[in-house]
Amino acid sequence: MLLGARFIDRCCLHRPIVCLSRRFKFSSPAKPQDSHCVDKDCDDFLPWLEQKAGVEISSVLSIGKSTYGRSLFASKSIQTGDCILKVPYNVQISPDNVPSKINSLLGDEVGNIAKLAIVILVEWKMGQDSEWAPYINRLPQPGEMHSTIFWSEGELKMIQQSSVYQETINQKAQIQKDFLAIKPDISLKEFMHACALVGSRAWGSTKGLSLIPFADFVNHDGFSDSVLLGDEDKQLSEVIADRNYAPGEQVLIRYGKFPNATLLLDFGFTLPYNIYDQVQIQVNIPHHDLLRTLKLELLHRHCPPKIGDVNSFSSMGNSFTIKEVKSARGKGRGIPQSLRAFARIFCCTSPQELSDLAVEAAQNDGRLARRPLKSWNREIQAHQVLLSWITQLINEYNTSIKVHVTTFTLFIITALASPLYETFALRKQMARDLLTGELRVLKSAGAWLENYCATLTTKSYLSDENGGSETVLGSRAKF
To answer: Global pTM?
Structure first.
């Protein structure tokens, strides 16, 4: 059972905690580790937390600094399968920590992220009198965070091509909405900082969300098989090493199978090459289509949107998430079947074609246009249309990358003397990682679609040469 599945419609996302029933495949290869620099400001942190917990939390990890910021390093040799940290629930911070006087004033519309942000702010206001002061004082300051809600308008223009741009706007709007609902005795800027801390550091839990001191110092590696585990029987969270570590090596875990879009939006970093990169696109039936009403009715009748479904139909538009297609000659895994179905419906030119698709869906599993069309030419046309959409996006991404690099280079030239230069340069690289990763995904989808259309065209030609009909043969179902 997955505890605390991530959600998309809130202002920030969080890392999931997985229960101990999950099985692991300890095969993550060793990677060059970041240099270890002792963080003397944190020498007393683990002893404080262990005293508060009443138990040992880790005997093999120490807090240090790396190019990623505050990090955890192996202080002793660690072997695959070793439990490297255990943080009891009694030293984790959840929405239950909201003072009762404040909690009674909060409406149902205030979610766990905002509630946990309130806890941080209350403890921060208390200063050294807070029981959590050693932890609160070591949380990142706004200038150390790079989640896109902290980016300037000029910086956000670099990623305008990506869905992260609009998601950032939506996220800021949600934070402001929560701020107005709560009306805390602080500024919006302070509340936004607290929400960003929760979004980037909290983990999904049986209590909704939890901040887990010490565990949240560990950094992310998308290739790692180690994750944070929740043990409800023992009432603690723990991490099991997925490989051997030598003393001084940085210890890494996987926050989740997150694309750069999520890493940048919620955690404020990207990976140069992220195997989980994906692209969110929206397509719709144009208003000038004479069959638009019939097509929309058919889509809604046979393809009702599911809660949490990122590949769904709606009256406002149809949103689909494309993942990297590993082989141009494979089955096209990565391109949602629902997107290919939408393209088939999009290309229908008569009510009879739409009626035939509805009958076919009813005779099978109820899903619309999931099988290749009976007409060679119509099937090719549908995927050529889909290819044209992907090609247009590829061109737009290429232009965006070129423009944002040129514009930002000019911007940097004027900012070389600015103390913010390093921040500008870092965010430029993050924008490049995001856009080039999504461009790679689009190119993989385009290559598969080109091959699919070429294959069908060849089959159609050979069928005509042999006096065959346009009917699609059963062998085509493999595409």
So the answer is: 0.86
